[in-house]
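Crash report, auto-generated. Payload:
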Amino acid sequence: MTNDNNQAQPSGSSLIAIYERAARIRKNDEAFHGAMQSGKLGIRIYYSPRGQEIIPSALCDHLTDADYLVTIYRGVHDQIAKGIPLKALWAEYAGRVTGTCKGKGGPMHVTHPASGNMVTTGIVGGSLPIANGLALASQLDKDQRVTVACFGDGASNIGAFHESLNMASLWKLPVIFLCQNNLIAEHTRFEKGTAVARVADRAAAYNMHGIHVNGNDPKAMWVAAKEAVDRARSGKGPTLIEAMTFRFMGHLIGDPDEHWREGEKEAALERDPVPALRAMLISEGHATEDELIALERNLDEEIEEAMAFAAESPKPDPKELNLDVLAGGAS
Amino acid sequence: MTNDNNQAQPSGSSLIAIYERAARIRKNDEAFHGAMQSGKLGIRIYYSPRGQEIIPSALCDHLTDADYLVTIYRGVHDQIAKGIPLKALWAEYAGRVTGTCKGKGGPMHVTHPASGNMVTTGIVGGSLPIANGLALASQLDKDQRVTVACFGDGASNIGAFHESLNMASLWKLPVIFLCQNNLIAEHTRFEKGTAVARVADRAAAYNMHGIHVNGNDPKAMWVAAKEAVDRARSGKGPTLIEAMTFRFMGHLIGDPDEHWREGEKEAALERDPVPALRAMLISEGHATEDELIALERNLDEEIEEAMAFAAESPKPDPKELNLDVLAGGAS
Amino acid sequence: MGEQVNFVQAINQAMHDAMADDSSVLLLGEDVADEEGGGVVKVTAGLSGAFGTDRVRSTPITEEAIIGAALGAALVGKRPIAEIMLMNFLTVGMDQIVNHAAKLRFMSGGQTHVPMTIRTMTGAGGGAGGQHTDMLEAWFAHVAGIKVVAPSTPADAYGLLRSCIEDDDPCLFIENMPTYWTNGDAPVAGTRVPLGKASVVSEGTDVTIISYARTMIEAGSAVKALSESGISAELIDLRTIAPFDLETILTSVRKTKRALVVHEAVTPFGVGAEIAARVSEELFHTLAAPVQRVGSTFNAVPYAQSLEEAHLPSIQQIVDSAKKTLA
Amino acid sequence: MGEQVNFVQAINQAMHDAMADDSSVLLLGEDVADEEGGGVVKVTAGLSGAFGTDRVRSTPITEEAIIGAALGAALVGKRPIAEIMLMNFLTVGMDQIVNHAAKLRFMSGGQTHVPMTIRTMTGAGGGAGGQHTDMLEAWFAHVAGIKVVAPSTPADAYGLLRSCIEDDDPCLFIENMPTYWTNGDAPVAGTRVPLGKASVVSEGTDVTIISYARTMIEAGSAVKALSESGISAELIDLRTIAPFDLETILTSVRKTKRALVVHEAVTPFGVGAEIAARVSEELFHTLAAPVQRVGSTFNAVPYAQSLEEAHLPSIQQIVDSAKKTLA
Ligand SMILES: Cc1ncc(C[n+]2csc(CCOP(=O)(O)OP(=O)(O)O)c2C)c(N)n1
Ligand SMILES: Cc1ncc(C[n+]2csc(CCOP(=O)(O)OP(=O)(O)O)c2C)c(N)n1
Ligand SMILES: [Mg+2]
Ligand SMILES: [Mg+2]
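Recovered output after restart:
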């Protein structure tokens, strides 16, 4: 299924908000790459979300801090769009005690309940069953929260996907299964691992509403996310969104990223979504060049401060090993 | 998808062969019930297949001993249709060393490679991943064998179903996923556990051929099985068959079988498939009453002999505990 | 002898009382609601009637989704009980238990935690064969961040389950199916049995027998048999397997100078190995004999009764092993 | 010093030679074929080129289906190698491994068996955090019907993997990722290292140190450090964890009268518990000091380097524990 065009479209201010989130993600990604090259902060592992910035940036226009997000190792774009503070994020990547998780979780397990970042998992498929549980709590408490589970195209083949969608549909849970389809799973191309042409078509196997959308188109993604969020909030149950996108920087830092076929990457990069949105904002008159430059300068400062905060922060003391294992650890 | 009616129909002799298998299953079931009531053979657990006799009886008209079957705890109908010798089967149920598995496996793990009964599992969903492996070996060896994985409607919701169908479709494996939909999973009604109206419709999620058929109609089931077997043998890949049926005797012996709604069971029993096929054979002139009585008398004798064989057989010696754990156990 | 109840009644009452006391307690599992029979052996009978099918939900046969749903709800204030029908089916949900439930408190630096109880039943003796009755508690004891509990009396089942439900960390609560209908003293409603505390079931001076769950029955019979041959055995019920009550064990063995660990799980790499290793280390100069272990033979659980009985630990094996420490 | 190769090369060569020698050897796993990069760290590079993508198949991310496919093919004459990228992902396939692969020989009364090898990598030290580097070998050692193998040198990796592939039962072959690119003597092509046989890496008279896999490095350094303080330690590499070579261990400890077990896995309920329990039982009257154990601290693997280093067993801890047996 695709979107119904009579639906509301994003306002200029929404588009600017989407751009601000996407630009923050992109600039943060550049800063992480820089920090890893220089090596000075001691960031040990990083899964770049470059190419996928628009998806959560548009989604989060419909969410508040009260809504729940469960994401994956490749989830820093989701976390930032959801509003995680960059200082604590950088400190976590740098393995500092001031990090979101005191440096214990690291990039694959960033957690920040205050912004609704409930769980980040390194296990393919691991995000979906947990999302159902968060949504079940909201359903019982009638608190109107929406839970979003992010995962990749490769994850749509694992058992947890199937079990979770079946349960969510049976119970009409207020959850959104957001498959960010970048057409690649580590080094395996989409069609080599997934027996169906469109992940969204799998929704029918659960009598669930499914949406296939270009996740890099901010307007289409905003509309798709709105439909799914409205359905969840109004008790209409879960939605499977397949948001088409790209993975520009390989599976993780250090990956040669060799899966692209001749010309594919160049073509994709021409459609790099963040500059495209920036150009749209100007061409459609939502923002001026000067306004965007100011916005971007603020982001640069925000990231500078986050880096500095992480650099100055202390490393966790080994006694932390005994804390947070079970309750009662004095922590 | 339903069957295409231009397909070949079962001959009279095929229908008689189907009836012989189904009658053997049914008479064997009655004998197992009798033995468990009397308690004399020491059968410790039994999952009756009553109501589901026709499905494997029609399927096996298209299979030989060389083809592989993987079934479940509720699988004695599949095993008998596939040609397992009743003596060794009874001895296994009775926990005798002359049993198919020396009494080590028991009812939930009956195995008899000579008749193609490769694995019987007690784990819901456990049969499907293994079936893919058997089919993979056949595909590599180009030996034209077909593998059938039996499972229930409840099993169509577990992760192993999803992973297995996706892999089988990607690799075009010569495998048939045979869902015996008796509309009940232990004590949970189909619609309460399965978010889709027809399990067969899930085939589309894997770009797989799916067939929804009345498994208790010997002609329709024969046609559906033929289509799937022909596809597998000719390299066209896997098929998901959803064969609709009933579970007449509860989940296992001792189960009060309370899930039926008002009048449901009576209506179902009126369509008890084995007597229905018997009547059809006579009304359509494929067999006479006398011929069927003779056939049934032979079955009674066969079962009598199997019971006697089990009763006379010795119990396994405790030293068997150390055998068959790893290779080199002198066995 | 006061009022008697069996395990099914005690466990049902514990869940009932916990749900009555705390609206955040939920129950998820296959067939748990009354419309589905109130559990395959009726352990959850009446709970959906009393608390509604919102809080007492029958699930599809999807262990990973069941545990994940309980885990997710636990992250935001619920105290879910996830019933996994049989312990062998935990293998289907191991990722959610081990990689997620047990680790989220640590990996989040204490920002989140998982007050979830997984109830599961198991135990050989009924002829269910190789895939339905394994004792896998040692796996979970080897994982940081999850507690493992196994009662041997209805009253402990009640009190330990209440404590698990109220515990702020994931707990695995192991129920023994073959003894489900065995009677014992009724629990006093509301009683909690603390986690991590063993109980000295009978005092003795010659040898300490440490066990838990189903084999407490065989161990108890062995204690009687030993006393008839003039040997005074002290019997300890571990009750909580992880973290286990080392202090109570050491106090006893300091007195008896001899120890024997008994469990239904297969011996190699089982819970008995850790206890034997700790006792042998801590009381090296006190022990008068090597610590003995009795467990099931190292093979899959066989179907034939003749084999299943030989596979399981026997009273005689326990008696002989105890005597070995005194030889 | 002769030709040197690293683990990646040795393991790749073992699979290459096995596939060349026996057309029934298959390889299934995520990204294993060259079109998918020949493995995430290139361990399987070139194999699909040499033997074709029928025999060397990249799979979807579905561990249960991968193991099941290998299992099923193994039932009918194939000798599949299933690569499960990281050990923590075995949690997704536990049902197929434990309830099926390990038990089918027994449950079928010997009619079928499962000559399958599961290769998996793991090991902390790289900052991957809590879900990517666990050492779970004790779980599988506790299951009858499956062998558990963990090499500590490239040559042993080659010879043990060849033996696993040719073994008629399921084998779990554990590879250590952080030391993948460490060099060692090149294996002699075709060599088999027998399963179930430990190797005495260095002889000594004062204390026996038993280890395996990655911590053989720390243990080796500890042996050197100890010798500098005049302590002669004998170092045993278990190589096969289950079934383990008790005889070689006992022979050594009879001589040294002291034992220390070292592994990367967390200490409680780990492999060290079984070894300590067995040694303490068998050599009760010989041991001059309690058996010591050194493992990782009991928590999830932390991300921060300062924590990850403190979590893992250190050379100093091994030295101190060895000295403790001599105090
Ligand atoms: C259960 C499991 N199997 C394998 C892996 C190793 N792994 C990590 S990411 C990944 C690819 C996932 O691809 P996809 O779902 O498309 O997400 P993407 O990385 O493209 O965002 C794999 C195989 C894992 N983390 N968990
Ligand atoms: C993984 C797993 N979970 C739960 C069970 C317990 N169990 C055994 S049979 C069954 C119901 C299966 O229903 P269905 O798949 O429809 O097969 P049927 O029994 O109706 O033939 C359940 C829940 C199991 N054996 N395995
Ligand atoms: Mg992807
Ligand atoms: Mg059913």
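Post-recovery validation: The CA atoms of residues 87 and 308 of chain B lie 8 Å apart.
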